[in-house]
Specification:
This protein is of the alpha+beta class. It is 34% helix and 21% strand. A hairpin with a 5-residue loop joins β4 (81-87) and β5 (93-98). The chain is globular and about 45 Å long.
Length: 131
């Protein structure tokens, strides 16, 4: 069973994606993340960080950004379900999530953070990675 994350955790994940993957400067106001490209309070609603981890459309912009950063994205939909894989230019697999159709956007965000080195791969021990 997939873990349930709260709305606050979703917005924190969205902000991490905006900062670490989309390379935006983020500010928080009224418990909401905004891109810092425009400090005008009247225009702030236009700068609200997209819902990357809940919107498939926004998650696909994350996938496009990963491609610009040199990663290969593979999305396979077949009778077994939907599989998402992210590979480095060398072909080394960075992240793989299977049977994710109901949580595609959230898994795309986790894969993106793994790809840019901001999150551990499943089973990876960071202590070993440092040595």
């Amino acid at each position: 069973m997939d873990p349930i994350i709260t709305h606050k955790q979703e917005r924190e994940l969205d902000a991490r994606i905006a900062e670490k993957v989309m390379q935006e400067k983020i500010i928080w106001a009224d418990n909401k993340p905004y891109t810092a490209s425009n400090h005008d309070a009247a225009a702030r609603s236009e700068n609200l960080v997209p819902n990357y981890c809940t919107s498939v459309g926004a998650a696909m912009t994350v996938a496009m950004q990963l491609r610009r950063l040199g990663f290969t994205i593979e999305i396979v939909m077949d009778e077994r379900g939907t599989t998402l894989a992210v590979m480095q230019a060398s072909g080394e697999e960075v992240a793989r999530f299977e049977n994710i159709i109901t949580h595609f956007a959230q898994q795309m965000c986790h894969a993106a953070l793994i790809a840019v080195g901001e999150e551990r791969r499943k089973g990876e021990d960071r202590r070993k990675a440092r040595h």
